[in-house]
Each structure stands twice: as structure tokens, then as C-alpha cells.
Amino acid sequence: MLELSGIGNPEVLQEAGIEVKVDNPAVGENLQDHMMTCMVYEIDPSIPTLESLRSDPSAAKAADLEYQTSRTGMLTTIPSSVAYLPFSHYLDPSHLSKLGTSIPPSPSTKPNAQAEIQARRFTHDQNLGQIEFNFDLSNYSPVFKSEPGKRYATMLQMLQYPLSTGSIHIPPSRNSGQRTRAEDKPIIDPKYYAGPGGAIDLEMMASAQRFAHKIVSTKPLADIIIGRVWPPPPPPPPPSSSQDSNNKDVEEEDFTEWVKDNTTTDWHPVGTCAMGPAGKGYVVDERLRVYGVKGLRVCDASIMPLQI
Predict the structure, then answer these.
(1) What is the pLDDT of residues 175-223, one digit of tens each?
(2) Using an 8 Å Cβ cutoff, are 197 and 164 in contact?
(3) Tens of pLDDT along 127-159?
(4) Contact status, residue 50 vs residue 138, Cβ threshold 8 Å
């Protein structure tokens, strides 16, 4: 809305055929999102899931009837288990401290406070929920397709404090002499794992997959698991391998490329109208007033300068 009104980066506005009223390149930048991956496991086929109700009209009808008559059954359940864990729960504290010192500084127009907050989040004594682990019955992967007759569960991992930042902008006008309209789809570039802090985000997410697989492979949860189907499990080690080496292979499985190719949004975008001091690369002040105009405020999650 700001860019359509002439508030933003002059280059973006000019390409959209919109007159520049307030020159502020920070508008639409600093996009941060909770990145998410979906590991899928085949589970005991006797366990009912919401996905099974969607594929079986008779079961869905029975579940509806049970809920309507007694307020019991599948439709009353929340079939998920959630935990927010600090990185230090499964990563070496000294390594985390090293990563904290390697976080790149904020752009020169912004105060160092932002980078300092991000660095503090990596110290081992910070009891922060830095990764969300969510085990949920049903297949929630946008890529893996369920096979008829099988039941699945998904272990989701969501990075809570990403360092990667992207952008959202209006598109260029489609025809010369016309301006971009509100109906035109915006250009959204989350830039997951890009930029100076992207490598750290990628390392944290890859390590989260290993720990998530460990959770699912541990009893009692392991008792309902038939096997991992997405990402496909690595080939089994040769028969001559020892049990210890087998365990080590699981613990050291490299998910890096899979994470790059399969990260999606958790639908929690913030930061594109960030709050901060005037003239320092921000969009609104501490009272949510848009810099450069009067009587205009932004009152949504876009004003958060950092993900929470």
C-alpha cells in the first residue's frame, strides 16, 4: 500500500509508473520469515489421521456424526506435539558462541543494536526457543505425495530467528504509460539462506533435521514409525559395517542440499516496514508513524525490525 501510494524506493516506484512522494528505500526490504521444512514418516496404518478422513467419505461422515452427537472423536483432537528448543540443546555451546561472533553487522545505515541482539541469541545461556519442532499426524509436505492406503506423520522444523532477509515489492507496470495496480501480484523474494547470514541459517536448519530424525527414531514415538519417506532415507551401510558406525551415519547425515531445496514459509512474515530511528534505514517511528508523511501509521507485524 505504501509503494502504491508513492512511498518507497524511487527505482521500484518509477518502474511501476508511480510518482515518488516519499523517497525511502527501506520500504519492502528487511523481510524475515519463519523458515519451515517438512520431514514425512510412514506410520502404523491403524492410527487414524485427518488425512485419512479426507480420503474416506464414510469415515469422515462417521467422525462428523460422533462430534455432533457427543462432542468426542477425531474432530476434537489436536494431533500434534510441539517443542521450542534452544540450539544449545543439540549443538556444542562453543560452536554457537563462535557463530555468534561471526554474525555480519547490520547495513551501515542501521544501528549495531540489531546485530548485537542477533549475536546474543547465539550464546549458550540464552534459553530461547530457536527451533520449533512440531510432530503432526498427516502428510503436510507440499512435495511428497501420499500413497493410497498408507498413513503418515510430519515432523516440521521452523527456524524462529533467521538472519536471512528478503523483500516484497510491487511489480513493474505491465504496459508503458500505465501504473501498477493493487490487483497486480507483488514480487516476493524471501532470499532464504542468502546474504551474509544465510550460511548460518542453513547450518542451523540442517542440524535441526538431524535432531528431528533422532526424536522420531527414539521410543516411544519410534514404536509407531514404519520409516522415513521424505526426504528419502540414505542407502543402508554395507553389511560389514559395525552397529556403532551405523549410528554414526544417522547422526551425521547431511541434510544441507535437501534443506536448500525444500524450505518453505511458516506464514509469519515481518520486517518490511521496520520500526527504528529516523534516517537509519527504517520506515516507522516508535509510535508507528510513517516517516515523511503526516497522519499515516502502519499497525501490523511488518513494523517488527527483527523476527520474534
Answers:
(1) 888 999 999 999 999 999 998 899 999 999 999 999 999 999 999 999 9
(2) yes
(3) 899 999 999 999 999 999 999 889 999 999 999
(4) yes
Q: Is 271 exposed, middle or buried (0-12, 13-18, 19+ CB in 10 A)?
A: buried
Q: Cβ distance 203 to 37 under 8 Å?
A: no
- Tens of pLDDT along 77-98? 876 899 999 999 999 988 888 8
Instruction: Quote the pTM value.
Output: 0.89
Q: Which three cell numbers stand for residue 46?
A: 491403524
Task: Please state, in angstroms and rounded to a whole number, the distance separating the CA atoms of residues 61 and 67.
Answer: 10
Q: What's at 175, amino acid-wise?
A: N
Looking at residue 297, the DSSP 8-state letter turns out to be B
Q: Residues 6 or more apart from 108 whose CB is under 8 A from it?
A: none
| Distance (Å) of CA 218 to CA 82, 126, 221 | 16, 26, 6
State the DSSP H helix or E strand holding residue 83, giving kind and residue range, or none if neither: strand 80-85
d(CA 200, CA 197): 6
| Cβ neighbours, 10 Å, residue 284 | 22
Under DSSP, the state recorded for 226 is: E
Euclidean distance between CA atoms 29 and 8, whole angstroms? 10
